[in-house]
Design a protein that fits this description.
The complex is a heterodimer. By secondary structure, chain A is of the alpha+beta class. In chain A, 42% of the residues lie in helices and 26% in strands. Chain A has one domain (7-149): Heat Shock Protein 90, CATH 3.30.565.10. Helices cover 42% and strands 27% of the residues of chain B. Chain B has four helices and six strands. The chains are: A alpha+beta, B alpha/beta.
Chain lengths: 150, 124
């Protein structure tokens, strides 16, 4: 994948649930070409799926919404950086995670997505405001890089 | 995109209150409503002792986990229970991260799950 190091892939996908699987397939193919192992690819798929799902649910709640969700993958030498951007007002990810942590014992049905993203990726950041929308940036490092860091 | 749903759901009734639901494929925001409908149908018909076989489940996300939690709650509200059978290591990992591993009862086989549900039914 050295030839592609430093390049990026960007896709604009519809704000529709049936395209989450398309996004997962695309990102897993990129991760596979970067030589991520099977477990890491599965982690990336779940995290991406959760970020896309959040974008659909919070980025544009109206079913008539025609805004697109932007998915960008930056292929670095030692990491894959995935950014999911939606045009919505956003939400407070820390609140969602707190709700789940406090609510697990009482069987809460929501708020698990953010927890999964945080747990499965090496680095996660959120940026949200009414003017620019919401952006989730997730980093997954290649295992060799993780080993060197230890 | 309508014909690309990668999810199969099979239900089998064991007795008047117990049913086995086998879910195979990928359960996400797009496909989970289909599974939710199947579970709610069973609960509405009085099947509140549910066994959910996840052995052939390739992918599952937080939407699907939320649906399973909802079905568990509804079955317990009716005095029943919901047990998971043979989740893959990947799904077990997600259950651990979300701490739902402490919420669901997990069995290695359908037989084990149905036996335990029958035992629970006798004790209650």
């Amino acid at each position: 994948m050295a030839a592609c190091c430093g390049c990026h892939v960007e896709m604009c996908l519809p704000n529709r649930a049936e395209f989450v699987a398309v996004a997962r397939l695309a990102v897993s193919a990129i991760a596979s070409r970067m030589n991520f192992d099977v477990d890491d690819i599965e982690d990336i798929k779940v995290a991406l799926g959760e970020a896309y799902t959040n974008a659909i649910q919070h980025g544009c709640p109206s079913s008539a919404c025609t805004e697109m969700i932007t998915l960008r993958c930056d292929l670095e030498e030692d990491a894959l950086i995935i950014t999911v951007h939606d045009p919505g007002d956003g939400f407070d990810p820390s609140t969602a995670m707190r709700q789940h942590r406090h609510g697990a014992a009482s069987l809460t049905e929501r708020g698990m997505g953010m927890l999964l993203i945080e747990s499965l990726m090496d680095e996660v950041s959120f940026c949200s405001d009414a003017e620019t929308g919401t952006q989730v940036r997730m980093v997954k490092r290649l295992q060799a890089t993780k080993a060197e860091a230890r | 995109m309508g014909n690309t749903i990668n999810l199969e759901i099979h239900t089998r009734c064991v007795d008047e209150h117990m049913a086995i639901v086998t879910i195979a494929g990928e359960m996400d925001i797009h496909t989970t409503p289909q599974a939710k409908t199947a579970m709610l149908d069973l609960l509405a018909k009085g099947y509140y002792q549910l066994v959910v076989n996840l052995q052939q489940m390739d992918y599952l996300d937080s939407t699907a986990l939320g649906m399973l939690v909802g079905a568990l709650k509804r079955s317990r509200e009716r005095g029943g229970d919901l047990r998971l059978v043979a989740p893959t290591p990947r799904i077990l990992r997600l259950l651990e991260i979300t701490r739902l591993i402490n919420v669901f009862s997990i069995d290695a086989s359908e037989q084990e799950a149905t036996d335990k549900l029958m035992q629970e039914g006798t004790e209650s």
